[in-house]
């Protein structure tokens, strides 16, 4: 599942959002807020438009609207945290595919009852995941395995 906010960063116009989508030099907080939008805009699944939030002192911001929402499956509408203006953020929880976990090498023994193993998590994307670029996400991690009652389980050392 991927959470995609329909509301962009508060008070960013669509012109500012498009400029930020085309640049890799912005702060992580802005990049992270817009990460799913880049692929969705490129694949033409969403359109961006500026809102009008009310008084001139509160200019609104850019929001994403899903193209052809009736034919898109796996997009569940949600409301979330509060915006600085007081309203709730709107967006979707989207099924993007399934996780695939691969062990990236032989476990290394740490003792008689523990071992360390590296693994890689990738996404096998569905149609939604391909549109969001989820097939490009890879997470590398290390887990500590502990032997208890003859069986191995992941211990608390997962990173």
Architecture overview:
The strands form three sheets. Strands 6, 7, 8, 9 and 10 form a five-stranded antiparallel β-sheet that branches. Strands 1-5-4 form a three-stranded antiparallel β-sheet. The protein has a two-stranded antiparallel sheet with strand order 2-3. The chain is elongated. Helix content is 18%, strand content 42%. The two termini are 21 Å apart. With 159 residues, the protein is an alpha+beta fold. Strand 9 and strand 10 form a beta hairpin.
> Poorly predicted ranges (pLDDT <50, ≥5 residues)?
none
Q: What's the main sheet like?
A: 5 strands, antiparallel
What pattern of helices and strands is seen along the backbone? EHHEEEEEEEHEE
Gap from first CA to last CA: 21 Å
Number of helices: 3
Strand content: 35-45%
Class per helix and strand makeup: alpha+beta
Supply Rg. 21 Å
